[in-house]
Design goal:
The protein has about 140 residues and is α+β, with helices and mostly antiparallel strands. It contains three helices and five strands; from the N terminus they run H-E-H-E-E-E-E-H. The chain has a single domain (about 1-130), classed as Nuclear Transport Factor 2, Chain: A. Strand 4 and strand 5 (about 115-125) form a beta hairpin. The model has no long low-confidence stretch (mean pLDDT about 95).
């Protein structure tokens, strides 16, 4: 069962996020999915998630989301990921920079009956904002 859950998460990432088939999100995610760590301004449930995915794909049209490692236990799947993309439109308040970014993170998904019921994403937002030039590291 846990192996099946890992496969479902991988298919969601490949088809919905990387290929941009946002309209198929409901095949992988429950309507009342709970994002434990929502993006700033993210609305609730499936529609809120779809809106975040649309804004990411608009901001990074060449978005490529890859899972490098997964750990499964019971109904949970932890996926260590990395995504890359070129910043072509406003994202989280930062106007398009044309910069290529590489961002790492971990997402913990809990599945029920083959779909994601709740999720918690821990992403290197500080690294993302630094790569976009929104934050300038202090000199040591």
């Amino acid at each position: 069962m846990a192996h099946d859950n890992a496969t479902i998460v991988r298919r969601f990432v490949e088809e919905v996020i990387t290929q941009g088939k946002i309209d198929t999100t409901a095949q992988f995610v429950w309507e009342d999915v709970v994002e434990q760590v929502p993006f700033p301004g993210q609305g609730p449930g499936l529609e809120g998630l779809k809106e975040v995915l649309r804004s990411m794909r608009a901001a990074f049209p060449d978005l490529d989301f890859s899972i490098h490692e997964q750990i499964c236990e019971g109904d949970k799947v932890a996926s260590r990921f990395e995504w890359t993309g070129t910043h072509k439109a406003e994202f989280l308040g930062v106007p398009a920079t044309g910069r290529f970014v590489r961002v790492w993170g971990v997402v913990i998904d809990r599945l029920e009956q083959g779909r994601i019921k709740d999720t918690r994403i821990l992403m290197d937002s500080l690294g993302l904002m630094t790569q976009l030039g929104a934050l300038t590291p202090a000199k040591a």
